[in-house]
Amino acid sequence: MGEGRPGVLIAGAGPSGLTAGLELCRRGFSPRIVDSESGPAPMEESRALGVNARTLTLLSPSGVTDRILGVAQHITHFRVRSGSALLFELDTGRAAGAYRAIQAMPQGLMERLLLAALREYDVEPEWNTRVEAVAGDPTEPVVSIRHADGATESVRPDFLIGADGAHSVVRKSLGFGFPGEALETCFYLADYRYEHPVDARVADIEVFNPGILGHLPVTPDTLRYISTLSDYESRIVHPDKVVEEVWRSEFRVHFRHVESMSRGNVFLAGDAAHIHSPAGARGMNLGIEDACWLAYLLSEGRQQEYSSLRMPAVRQVMKVTYRLTAFITMKNPLLIGLRNRIVPMLLRIPPIGTRLLRGVAGYDTPPPPWIAGAE
């Protein structure tokens, strides 16, 4: 798995796994990456969409940030409305640092940009290659791998990174707990492509009594709608003629995280370690943050600090996304009325608006010490 450096096996080639691989390559490692899928996320399935300022900072040393900014949709404002009333509006350019608080780019494109950067180090994920189990002492893990042709392999990496998603085989094999809860509210997603380009600068949310319907840009001619209302389609006011519905999905929100993100020489990152609401667009970004910190700590020989350094950040993001989800899904008419009157007044107070924008930007977690001047 590389000469002169310990061997690293990464299970999962989503954004977290690919970022871990890229950051390790930058630091002289030659990681091996395996994934059970046949390739990166399909381009038509936008999945994770928001790329925040923290992620842009973290990916700047690898050159991926410049590539992201060349293709992403630059969100300039967040607007939250109740009917014709504007509850509040945030200018994403008010975030401190070099970047706007958030950009929009489909997960499939993010993965392809990371893959292109990895290929510059002659690293390519092994697709259709599944981690079936992890055994042995976590300080010396033994990983069972099955290839596309059915052949099996036993691997003994120095370090194992489980970036294999919410149903992580690595996490389950080693008995990491994954406590939490599922909310009753169901979220609905749908991406619509229009005949002509539409305004891709604004992320807009309308709150109902109860429920929400919002939209975000995916590409210049495609918008993603997200709602907690089963009849959301009848409530959409399309900005142009619909050419096609590109993708749709629905899911219940879970809030879960491990109590420790490492055991011995086995480490968890991204959805394998924590899952939460899409409110605030923190999921993919938090996983990329995990991966960057882990690569840095491995290169410094400080990998045993990983969990203690990352868990406070995970708990912070879980707390924020839980509050945002409660804000947009409340059903009590009295509370809804108070929300619609009080929140606009609060956000006119500069420190409160700034704090909300810092969360959107991802600046509510510790800055990376290996990047000079990072927010």
Strand order of the largest sheet: 6-5-13-14-15-12-16-19
Distance, first to last CA: 34 Å
Overall pLDDT, averaged? 92
> CATH superfamily assignment?
FAD/NAD(P)-binding domain
Helix content estimate = 25-40%
What class, by secondary structure content?
alpha+beta
- Portion of residues in beta strands equals 25-35%
CATH class: Alpha Beta
Spans of at least 5 consecutive residues with low confidence = none
- Topology-level CATH name: FAD/NAD(P)-binding domain
Q: Give a short account of the largest sheet.
A: 8 strands, mixed
Task: Considering the chains and any ligands shown, give keywords for the structure.
375 residues; alpha+beta; FAD/NAD(P)-binding domain; 8-stranded mixed beta sheet; 5-stranded mixed beta sheet; 19 strands; 31% helix; globular; monooxygenase
